[in-house]
Specification:
By secondary structure, this protein is an alpha/beta fold. The protein has helices at residues 2-6, 78-84, 101-104, 107-114, 125-128, 211-224, 241-247; strands spanning 47-53, 58-65, 68-72, 90-95, 117-120, 150-151, 157-160, 163-169, 178-184, 189-193, 196-197, 200-201, 230-233, 239-240. It has a six-stranded mixed sheet with strand order 1-2-3-4-5-6, covered by helices on one side. Bound molecules: zinc ion (ZN) (2 copies).
């Protein structure tokens, strides 16, 4: 995968990040449904599980609070994600941070298995509806995404147990990119999709990309996301806003 990433074939990142994991089926990465390493929410109640799915190792997250679950980016292997979730949780919603196939290809199967509400920006819904077709990078994912049950826009909130996530529109990598900033029991938690990575940002040279929009979004995220926030990215390792402000060349 590192080769793919470095020459910008098949990867969503704008620069490079460490691809130290092989495979990419659900539950690889050593986090098979358990709490992820390095970024676990540590309040003793809410949990974040991370699954790495699909051919370009997309991170799928399950945020669990009070028996309710929000799945972020069911990119592939929807049925396998379902089978790896704890049995006693109710999947309330499936949220796509954006419409690229590697983030929505598993939505159809997971929605069918759980009956959950599917939510995303309407601006990326058309793109997501082609996730099962071969894309410009020669990759395809499980299924086309269904039309969203819930269209997310700036300022909307998603409630999961005692956690709340505010929607921040983050165009650039795609027109309908979203960032989910936690509060309540999800204070200090943020899901950023492919907008921001550890040491890098989302590429803008593929379908839906807009470099000027991304730059505006990054300026805004520096203002909106508090430094102490744990940042969960669409690919690669989690980070913190503080570390990115200090080290990410795209945030300077
Ligand atoms: Zn991606
Ligand atoms: Zn993407």
């Amino acid at each position: 995968m590192a080769d793919h990433c470095d020459d910008h074939e098949g990867c969503c990142c704008g620069g490079h990040h460490d691809h130290e994991h092989e495979g990419g089926c659900c539950g690889s990465h050593g986090h098979g449904g358990g709490c992820c390493g390095g970024g676990c929410h540590d309040d003793g109640r809410d949990q974040i599980a991370m699954f790495v799915v699909g051919p370009i190792e997309t991170n799928c997250y399950a945020y669990i609070s009070q028996g309710e679950c929000m799945v972020v980016d069911a990119g592939d292997s929807g049925q396998a994600i379902y089978e790896h979730l704890p049995e006693d949780v109710r999947v309330k919603c499936i949220v796509a941070t954006h419409g690229h196939g590697d983030h929505v290809g598993g939505v159809k199967a997971l929605k069918e298995a759980t009956g959950a509400t599917f939510a995303m920006s309407p601006r990326d819904a058309e793109m997501a509806s082609h996730a099962g077709e071969k894309n410009e990078l020669g990759l395809s994912y499980d299924d086309d995404a269904p039309a969203p049950d819930l269209e997310l826009r700036e300022g909307d909130t998603l409630e999961v147990g005692t956690a709340s996530f505010r929607v921040i529109e983050a165009p650039g990598h795609t027109p309908g990119g979203l960032v989910l900033l936690g509060s309540g029991s999800a204070d200090h938690i943020c899901f950023v999709g492919d907008t921001l990575f550890k040491g890098s940002v989302g590429r803008t040279d593929i379908s839906g990309g807009d470099q000027a929009a991304l730059e505006e979004t990054l300026v805004r995220l520096k203002r909106e996301i508090p430094p102490h926030t744990n940042v969960f990215c669409g690919h690669g390792d989690p980070t913190t806003m503080e570390d990115e402000l200090a080290q990410n060349p795209y945030l300077r």
